[in-house]
Each structure stands twice: as C-alpha cells, then as structure tokens.
Amino acid sequence: MPSTIQADQNLGYRIVLGWGLGSLGLSVILNTLNVLLIAYLTLVVGLEPALAGTLILLTKLYDVVTDLPMGWISDRTRTRWGGRRPYLLLAGLVTPVAIFLLFSAPVGDATVYVTAALLLYATGYTLFNVPYLSMPAELTMNVHLRTRMVAWRSTFIAGGTFFGIAAAPFLVGTLGGGHEAYTTLGALMALVIFAAFVGCFLMTSTAQPVAPNQAFIPLREQLAVILSNRHFLTLMLIKITHLLAVAVNAGSLVFFFRFALGYDMKVLGIYGAVTTAVWALAMPAWSRIAQVKGKRFGYFIATTGHVLLTLSWLLAEPQEPMVFMLARAAGFGIISGGMLLMGNAMLQDVMDLDYRDTGKRKNGMFAGMYSLVEKITSGIGAQILGLVLSLTGFDRLAQTQAESAIRGTYITVALIPGLLMLSSLAIIYAYRLDERKLLAASPDARSSA
Predict the structure, then answer these.
(1) What is the pLDDT of residue 249?
(2) Which of 24, 147, 231, 232 lies at 20 to 30 Å from 267 by C-alpha?
(3) Which residues does 429 contact at the CB level (< 8 Å), separation at least 6?
(4) What CATH number does residue 404 fall under?
(5) pTM of the model
(6) Residue 115 covered by a domain
(7) Which of 288, 291, 294, 278 is nearest to 335 (CA)?
(8) 139 with 207: CB under 8 angstroms?
(9) How many domains, the chain?
(10) E strands within 153-211?
(11) Distance between CA 196 and CA 126 in Å, rounded?
(12) 63 pLDDT band (50/70/90 cuts)?
C-alpha cells in the first residue's frame, strides 16, 4: 500500500464531464418519478392513492437488500474496465427497459405489473448509482477539485430536473394526459437514460483511482465502521429530512397545481423550466460560496431559504398572478442548486476523510447507504402523499375535488415539507466536518491502520 496520498490530481474535462453526465440520467428518473408517478398510477392506471404509495414504498424497501451489498461488491470488483464502470454499462441496459415498461402499464388491475416494473427499475438504479457515487473521492484527493466535479454534476442534475419537472409535465399535458402520453414519455425517458448512462461509461474510460485500495474488508465490518462514523450519520440525518420533504412536495405538485390552483400540466412545465434555468445560472455562485465560506454555511443558508419558500405555498390562491408562481420557481431554482451541491460535496469529504484515516476504501459502502436512504425516503414520501390524499377524501375520478381534499394538497405541498426542512437546520448546525479538518488529516495515518 502506498505510504502517501497524492495531494492533487488534474482530471481532464472528458472525465469530469463524463462523470457528471451520469447524473443527467439519474436526475431524469428521480425527478420525473417524484413529480408524475403517483399522478400517473392514480389518474391514468387507476390505482387508489394509498395503494400506489404503498407499492412505491414496498419496492423501495427492496433496496435494503440490494444497495449495501452493491457497494461492497463494487468495492471488491477488479476488471480491465475498472471496479465501478462495468456496472454503469449494465445499468444503461437494464434501467431504460424498466422505465419504458413502467409507463406502459395496463389500465385497471395492474398491481402485479407495476410492482414488477418498479422492482426492475430499482435494480437498474442501484447498479448505476452506488458505484457512480463512489468515484469522485477515488479520482482525486483535492477537496476543491471534487467540489468542482460535484458542481458540474449539479449542472447535469439541473438538466434532468428540467426534464422531470418541466419538459415531462408539459409533454404529457400537450399530448392530452392519457395513457398514450405517458407511454411516449416513457420511451423518451428510456432514450435519455441510455445515452447518459452509457455515455458516462464511455467518457470515464481513462479514469484511474489516485491510490487504489487492495485490502478487502468484510461486509459486516464495513457496515459497523460506517455506522460509527459520526460525520456520515449526521449527514444522513440531514439528507433524510431533505429527501423526505422533497419527495412529498414534488409528488404533490400535479395535484396542487391542477386541483388547488386551477392550472394545467403545461403551467407546471413552465414552473419547472424557470426553476431549472435559474438553478443552472446560480451554480457558479454556490460553488464559490462553498470554497470561500464552507459547505456547511452554504447548506444552512440554502435550507433556510427552502423553508421560507416551501411554507409560502400556504398563501397561494386559485389562479394567483403568474408572477407570484414564477418568483417562487426562481427562488426554488437558486436554493435547490445550493442544497444539492453542498450535500453531495460533503458526502465526498466524508469518504475522503475515512480513507485518509484508515487507508481502506469503503466508498461503495458509503454510497450504498446514501443511495438506500435516498430511495427509502422517496418511498416513504410517496406513502405519506398517498395516505394524506386518501384520508382527506381525494377522488381520482372527479374533475373537481372537495374542500377537504384541496386542504390535503396544501398540507402535502407546503406544511409537511416545510416542517421537515425546518427540523434539519439544527442538524446542519451540528455538523462538524469542514475543509480545514479534512486537509489536516494525516495522509500517513493509514499506513499503520
């Protein structure tokens, strides 16, 4: 094992952009499903909201079985294509098929079909996301270069978010919102995901770990070490509250815009377009804030803004002036980009510090746990949304909803997400890993580990 860690590594734009490209596919999946899946399963396929939420949650629990072992497997994999990259290619073949099948579900009694499609999708997502998130901390020990990598990733995520919360609703609305509209959307999503995942595999062909780790650690031992890492656990608590808030809010948007505000899907598409355009424009500023003021500071400021904007939906009224909606869209674009950049960069710092301290790579396990939290919280969010809609009397066959159901959409789009975001501020304040502590970690400490 080498006795020193290379302090810097200049990665070519092909690798930086190629790695970031993978997030386009991930973001297309995550945002499109967060925004449209519950609406599609209830309003088009015909499932009851509570049942749709339950199916999504149950298939997310399947990731408990797959995500952590996937991280352990990718940590141990050695091929001529590298340890992580073969799974990127395999995911590029599996995931597009799963997404197309999901959005081609038969109308009516489709419980078994939807469950199978969701399980296949979850498998493909795990195959890509866990190895993918493990890569930056292996490719460079330079803290600021990793932040720039994550900034590029965030830009691609903005593109995927544009697809999921702008282009997808606009396309579905333009095509009439029926089964054929969603099948067309599924085919388009499959093409984008294939291009992003396979493109990421091809463009990172020359990527080499700075200091490859040859020591294997048993799965149980890795899991125990990760669960004792206070920086990682604190970061996971933050992400749980954020991801749960985003999942509930995003899934509510179709119902809220249509039944509470009286807007159609095309207006939701405009809202999403403004959000993602501002998101991309704000990314250089957030990257600069991360370098000058630190990631924790940026995370706290962005989350505070998210709390205020989310709760402002409680003041929204039917057919309110478009300028109010667009102002919220722009605000969410600014703060969402900052939250995403800070959170993902902090995860890479946690991986880096663990390697500096121990000399053993556990990136796959860290990424697997992170991915598991991401998917389970999205499933719980879908379950919460489905239950609130059912309990407040939402009627999937009605063109207009009862007052209680309208109040339910305010609860899910504003109140629940806002309170969750608010609760995370104390956890962010308690987070203690910063750039100075990371750079002060002894590179040679691992030689005696």
Answers:
(1) 94
(2) 24
(3) 300
(4) 1.20.1250.20
(5) 0.77
(6) yes
(7) 278
(8) yes
(9) 1
(10) none
(11) 15
(12) confident
